[in-house]
Amino acid sequence: xxxxxxxxxxxxxxxxxxxxxxxxxxxxxxxxxxxxxxxxxxxxxxxxxxxxxxxxxxxxxxxxxxxxxxxxxxxxxxxxxxxxxxxxxxxxxxxxxxxxxxxxxxxxxxxxxxxxxxxxxxxxxxxxxxxxxxxxxxxxxxxxxxxxxxxxxxxxxxxxxxxxxxxxxxxxxxxxxxxxxxxxxxxxx
Length: 189
Prior knowledge:
Layout: H1 3-15, H2 20-27, H3 31-40, E1 43-46, E2 49-52, E3 62-65, H4 76-82, E4 95-98, H5 101-123, H6 153-164, H7 170-184
Antiparallel strand pairs: 1-2, 3-4
Helix pairs in contact: 1-2, 3-5
């Protein structure tokens, strides 16, 4: 598919009001690759749609920032009556920011970059945090001994919950627990 065909197909799909991601999927192109290609060919994102840079209307040259005006201005007479000192504020003027077409292009590029980064973050798998586990010494168990014991019900339930959160078997955990207990009470042997 040539570049002109790619742009023609993109514009047709965009005119059908498809989402950018859906268009990229239909064209079998990664969204970030498609964005970069459109930007290189002079297309800019305006009002959620890509248009050729020359076709973009230059009506949006100014952005207005309206400030809240302080309409309550205390009269000097009221200040004297209350015997308190209050400052009077003058209403502030509205400020406007003038943007050139070049500034708008830069803002569009930054916005396109943001969309690329946002898409990449959504694709990346979440990193797995290292889960804490029980420390078990590497020791081959040569011979196994089967036995039956009675344990407090609550302690056994806690032990089973601990085992379910571990990568080791109950047999390995019990063996390590008995080994640790014997080390601590070595003086009694």
